[in-house]
Design a protein that fits this description.
The protein is of the alpha+beta class. It has a single domain, classed as Gcn5-related N-acetyltransferase (GNAT) (Aminopeptidase). It contains five helices and seven strands, in the order βαααβββαβαββ. It has a seven-stranded mixed beta sheet, covered by helices on one side. A hairpin with a 2-residue loop joins strand 2 and strand 3. The termini are far apart.
Length: 159
């Protein structure tokens, strides 16, 4: 059973354990250094809004927040799912929850998210949920590799 709730500081250590390697941390939190520490994550959370946890059968299974919220647009960030919960609908539930929260709390009409090209599962999920790419930015990934950051947008259709 999936449910969501606000983030608690007691969730920090669990969420920090989700990225299993440098690439996964890069997708989740590009400015962080592997391994992720509670201090790094808390510093980001302190600058963000609506940090939200998804629980699967009572266990912390996913996390996300907004890194910007203005002009009826919310920018979704820090999206991550526990390795033990992947493939079980947690990410879809989490993103839909954040989309709903953006509309209700921030009157957002647009949600934007950025996803690195190596995160195929994320790109395909955002597409499934109605996000469309609108820009690509070159970034430097782990170990100095080139990476493409794909910027996507979800807007309600006309009518």
């Amino acid at each position: 059973m999936l449910k969501h709730r606000p983030f608690f500081s007691s969730d920090l250590q669990t969420i920090c354990s989700f990225p299993q390697n440098m690439d996964e941390l890069f997708y989740f939190f590009p400015k962080a250094t592997y391994p992720l520490t509670p201090g790094q994550l808390q510093a980001a959370i302190d600058q963000r809004s609506d940090s939200t946890v998804v629980e699967l059968n009572g266990d912390v299974a996913g996390f996300a927040n907004f890194y910007r919220w203005q002009d009826r647009t919310c920018w979704l960030g820090n999206v991550v799912v526990s390795p033990l919960a992947r493939g079980r609908g947690v990410a879809e539930y989490l993103i839909k929850t954040m989309m709903h929260l953006a509309g209700v709390k921030h009157a957002a009409k647009t949600i934007e998210v950025s996803c690195f090209n190596g995160n195929t599962a994320g790109i395909l999920l955002y597409k499934k949920l109605g996000f469309s790419p609108f820009d690509i930015e070159e970034r430097q990934g782990p170990n100095g590799k080139r990476a493409a950051l794909i910027h996507m947008r979800h807007q309600p259709g006309p009518g």
